[in-house]
Structures are given as C-alpha cells and as structure tokens.
Design a protein that fits this description.
By secondary structure, this protein is an alpha/beta fold. The protein has a single domain, classed as 3-Layer(aba) Sandwich (UDP-N-acetylmuramoyl-L-alanine:D-glutamate ligase). It has an 8-stranded mixed beta sheet, sandwiched between helices. It has a 4-stranded mixed beta sheet with strand order 3-2-5-6. α2 packs parallel to α3, α4 packs across α5 and α7 packs across α8. It is globular.
Length: 292
C-alpha cells in the first residue's frame, strides 16, 4: 500500500437503538409479566455504519463511506434489554430506497491500491449488478475488493476477498455439502468464485482459503466463556480489523490474526455500542502473537 491508499466502503447505513430497562416488580394480574422502568437509551450507527466507525477507530488511513441519503427513513434495529439481558428486537423501515447515483459515484472514487469494501446488508443500497460492476472496476484499477454478505451469488465472481459466515456458506452449498468440514467448504467457494474466502466460525474462529490454492489458514483468539456477552457486530469488527491492518501493508496472515483479536474484543462487550480502540487491540494482538 502507498501513503495515498484509502479504504472505500459502500453499503447500507442502519441505526442501532439500545433501550435498557430494569424490572421493578411483577404485574399484579400476571406475575409472569414484569413491570419495567427505562434506565438508558442510546443510538449508534449500525450496518455498514458500524463497520465504518470501527475502521476509523482502528486506522489513521483515509476512510470514505458511501450510502443512501440520510434524509429518508433509515432502517432501525431497536434492541430491548431487561435487567441487562437482551430480550427482543424491533425493526423499523426495513428497506432503503435505491438510488443508482450512489454506486456510480462510488465507483469513480476507486484508485490503485485502495481497499474497497462492499458491506451488503441487503436493505436496498446496492443491486447485485452494482456489486459486480464495483468488483470489475477494482480489478481494472488495481484496487483490492472485499465483499461481506449474507447471500453468496455468482455476481461475486473474482472478488479478491469474500467474507461470509457458516450459515451463509451452508445456504449456498446446500444441505449435503453443509456436512463438509469448514476447510472443504471454503475451498469449494474459492474454486467456484475465484476468490479468497474468509469463512468465520463464531467462537471457533475462522478458515481462510487462498484462491491460488497455496495457502490455507485457520486460527483464533478465543474469548473466555465467562467474558462473552453477545456476538452482535462481531462480523463487522472482524472485517474492520482485517481492513485496518491490510491498509497498513500487513500480510494476509497478520491481518487475519488482528481481525480475530478485534472480533474477540467485540463479543466481550454489549453489541455495537462502542467502537474498538486501537491501543487495546494492539495490546491483545501482541499477547496473541507471543503466547497463543
């Protein structure tokens, strides 16, 4: 990477609302129903907005985020906690009005050595044709393309890095192949789409398969069971760690290890409320390298 390289992100901006309640007594007519009192509520960027916020917290590189205009009804995920237990989620405005100017304008920004991230929450900012066009533009300009998605499609062909979780992988491969080992699954997807595949496996870490077939890697920095809070936002945190290290010219292996660290930090805190601090991530990474 050169000093002018930047991280370009395009995807769905969501809003994450958090409402924390305490149970003060039971309803007299139904002892199973708690009477609750609101303690605190917060709102933070969600979706690709959460990814962007974490990348900006982890690197001094230039980071640009393209998304739908903010004056429309932005999709909301409202999470309700009662006595510090995540109880249920309410979604509002689940779709974003498509505007083809956004992906076209985004593509014009792509230059050599940029890291281009497509963070697709499938709310309407992008079509699969847009995704394919952005990947093609990256290839033409010499930029690195990375897709984070919940649905694997042929339109992802020749993306440099495809980041997916196990559920997404199994949906793509079908019931019979879902019984395969993670390494076998990552290998097949890489061969089918000619991409480097990052398959995240929750508490079991990740598997990486290089599309050239000469590098398979898996390792994890596990979160102690007693420290685990939830996995909300862990995928974004993993990707943020990976991109922030890659833009600094670190190797794929180093970037994956750092991503494992940032994901670990994420699951030990409440959802997407706080971005990951680079100093904390570096400290845990150094411990990881020297001791795990």
């Amino acid at each position: 990477m050169n000093k002018t390289s930047k991280i370009l992100i395009i995807g769905d901006l969501l809003l994450d609302y958090y409402k924390f309640y305490e149970s003060i007594r039971s309803d007299p007519a139904n002892t199973h129903a708690p009477v609750i009192s609101l303690l605190q509520e917060r709102v933070v960027p969600g979706g690709a907005g959460n990814l962007t916020r974490n990348i900006r917290s982890l690197t001094n590189a230039c980071v640009k985020f393209s998304h739908a205009v903010e004056n429309q009804n932005i999709p909301k995920k409202i999470r309700y906690y009662i006595n510090d237990i995540f109880s249920f989620r309410e979604d509002e405005n689940d779709k974003i009005k498509y505007n083809n100017i956004i992906p076209k304008s985004f593509s014009k920004q792509i230059q050599k050595d940029d890291i281009v991230i497509i963070s697709d929450y499938h709310k309407g900012t992008l079509t699969y044709d847009d995704v394919a066009n952005i990947i093609a533009k990256c290839k033409k300009e010499g930029a690195i393309s990375l897709v984070d998605t919940n649905f694997v499609k042929q339109k992802h062909y020749e993306v440099d890095y495809l980041k997916i979780n196990l559920k997404t992988t199994n949906q793509y491969l079908g019931q019979w192949k879902s019984m395969w080992l993670p390494r076998e699954k990552a290998t097949l997807i890489s061969n089918n789409l000619k991409c480097n595949t990052i398959l995240t496996l929750s508490e079991d870490g990740f598997v990486y398969y290089d599309r050239d077939g000469d590098f398979i890697y898996d390792k994890t920095y596990p979160a102690p069971v007693e420290s685990f809070i939830d996995s909300i936002g862990a995928g974004d945190s993993f990707l943020a760690g990976f991109a922030s290290y890659m833009i600094e010219g670190k190797s794929v292996k180093e970037s994956l290890n750092f991503a494992s660290i940032t994901s670990h930090i994420s699951v030990c805190r409440c959802g997407t409320l706080d971005s990951i601090n680079r100093e904390e991530a570096d400290e845990k990474y150094n411990f990881f390298v020297n001791n795990v």
